[in-house]
Amino acid sequence: MKNQDLFAVVSDLALAVQAVSVYPESHQRVQDLLVRLHQRIHEEAGRLSTLHIGFMGDHAIVDEFPFLGLSPTLHKLIRKMQEKGIEKVSFRKGITFGELKRFVYLVGGGGESAAELRWEHISYGRIHEVTEGENLPSGLSTVVRSHVLLGAADVLKGLLVSLAGGSVAGAGVRVSEGRDLVDAVMRGLRQEGMLIDQLMRLQAHDDYTVTHSLNVCIIVVAQAIHLGFSESQVQEIGMAALLHDVGKETIPSEILNKPGRLDAREFERMAEHPATGAKILRKIDCGSDLPMVVAFEHHVKYNRSGYPALRFEGAMQPASYMTQIADVYDALRTYRPYRKSLDLNTTLSIMKEGRGTEFEPRLFDRFLELHP
User: Fold this and answer.
1) Pairing state of beta strands 65-68 and 88-92?
2) CA angle 321, 323, 324 (to 5 degrees)
3) What integer is the mean pLDDT of 11-18?
4) Which of 63, 129, 180, 359 could form a disulfide with 125 if both were Cys (CB 3.0 to 4.6 A apart)?
């Protein structure tokens, strides 16, 4: 896939920069990484004529595809680029091995000033600058400004699979990645002026649960911000929303992806995912119990007509009500093999019928304020 090839470029660039800062030039790892990196960049630059890579915040943007810098190695690359004052680099068709090697050593090895070096097939600088008469594609600036989550789907997929697999080892790192995604959602909403659908449209993944979980997180974080929760509370609620469907990772794909109504046996199996998700999250330190609680409660409904049955009386967690609202909203707005996506007015009209029964009325009214 194109995205994977482009991500391999920035990943190999990060590895090569790290290697030259640690090993001598003669080391085999340095040579192998430089050769592989040159092959990748030479191929992509040949295909595109010019391969553009941008570095902004915690993102690397490769040919207008943003990737969150969630790996330590990519974080280091972004930091080194920032130290050199490099926000963008362009590799042109015909780039030589020698040019690329010198650039990698410029970034990773230190010494020479970035302002002093120029090559025929490489240019670099800040986003607002035009280097050697070359403009960045207009989409790159748009991506830097707005598309803060396009690299998040694969990260979330890894997180959900890891948690569902019961691997406690490394769970702390995975949960930390989840918090980074929630932070990115918060930034994205503020950059997009709280336009929920604008940010939701940017999500895409071949696993529906991944796309759905990101969208639900976006909607719930928007609700939490709108309701005036503190920054830390928004992060906690967003994390719970992000992981609300982790139990679905244990549901057979033929049930999850069935292009039609589930039969009684299949629905019974599907209805296990809230309790399963809660059991998974109970074993993981997510910073609070809220993700576990929301995973368990998000299908119960305000009037308790959903599932699973609760043994206690009284209100559920507000985050559970908020997640349920978001869950239904995204399900109606999203295309499924058995149903077309519904427009905004139709979606809200259907949901209004559930006010006070399916949905907690006060929180639902506040949700509607996000769609004036």
Assistant:
1) unpaired
2) 65
3) 92
4) 129
- How long, in residues, is the chain? 372
Q: By CB neighbour count within 10 A (0-12 exposed, 13-18 middle, 19+ buried), where does 349 fall? A: exposed
Q: For all residues of the chain together, what is the average pLDDT?
A: 81
Place of tokens 């599907």: 270
| Residues 255, 111 within the same domain | no
Return the structure tokens found at 218. 């976006």
- Round the CA-based radius of gyration of the chain to a whole number and report it: 23
Phi, psi of 371 (to 5 degrees): -125, 65
Beta strands in 34-139 (DSSP E): 50-56, 59-62, 65-68, 88-92, 122-125
Whole-prediction pTM value? 0.61
Q: Which of 38-42, 256-260, 355-359 has the highest mean pLDDT?
A: 355-359
Q: Are residues 327 and 217 in the same domain?
A: yes
Q: What's the number of domains the chain is made of? A: 2
- Which position has the token pair 């992806």? 257
> Is 196 in the same domain as 77?
no
Q: What is the DSSP letter of 326?
A: H
d(CA 24, CA 178): 36
